[in-house]
Amino acid sequence: MNLIIGGHVSFSKEEQLLGSVKEALSYGCNTFMCYTGAPQNTNRVPINDKATALARDLMKKSEINYRDIVVHAPYIINIANGVNKDTYYFSIKFLQAEIKRCEQLGINKIVVHPGSHVGQGYEKGMENIIKALNMIINKEQKVMICLEIMSGRGSECGCNFEQLKHIIDGVTYQDKVGVCLDTCHMHDGGYDLSNFDKVLTEFDNMIGLNKLAVIHINDSKNERGSKKDRHANIGFGNIGFENLINIMYHPKLKDVPKILETPYVDDSLKNIVYPPYKFEIAMIKKKKFNQSLYNDIRMYYQSKES
Length: 306
Ligand code: FE
Ligand code: FE
Ligand code: ZN
Prior knowledge:
Number of strands: 12
Number of helices: 10
Strand content: 15-25%
Number of domains: 1
Largest sheet: 8 strands, parallel, barrel
CATH topology: TIM Barrel
CATH superfamily: Divalent-metal-dependent TIM barrel enzymes
Structural class: alpha/beta
Radius of gyration: 19 Å
Order of helices and strands: EHEHEHEHEHEHHEEEHEEEHH
Helix content: 25-40%
Oligomer: single chain
Bound molecules: fe (iii) ion, zinc ion
């Protein structure tokens, strides 16, 4: 089975999507996810159509399918908190602008965190999210908003299938909304991923497999149900290599892009970190856990430096 797998790559001011494609290819990805600027802020440079055209040409010559690539909205926007009207309406406007940027980039999926109610209570938070989505989504848009399941840390909304379904049910143009499952968030939220068929059946019954648009593949640093949301490298956490392989190669998820958001590996001597994706993807393709992953990563990137 041909896996659609990639990592979270950067989107630089200069090369934009072209840079993202180059970075993804350097890891052996056949898809990728990027922000359209810094994830922690909302400063955005205009989309450079020339860079996008060059990215398209490069993708044509590679294994990457344009339709599989994904944008992630910056995580500081919050459409669940209606207390501060300025932030609430800013988030709505910003998401609309991000959708426009996706359209200009030719990318048709954007992952969005449902948000945190920060004290307003869960009911109100859900109401705010639905209201915001109905202001954001227009009938003509081509981009699908993929609501990411959260771990339940703090006052996060959208931490289980029921809550995601509740949001989708409230949206007028439901064909513009999908779901992004994140294995670390699900595990930290209490789902038992060692029994994935059961979990998937539950998802199918509640929301429908046709709504599953993206999967984030991460191991977890914490116990199941911890609600912590700290990602670990594949096979180095509490979900484990076998369970993650099982999910990635699940025949029902064949067409769903899988994106790694695993931690960079640090160099204990230098103040520097290395991307893990090239080596994680290699072991995923072999379906064999690599105990010396960290060493291999350090050796590879150190040899490139010298
Ligand atoms: Fe996310
Ligand atoms: Fe994620
Ligand atoms: Zn996370």
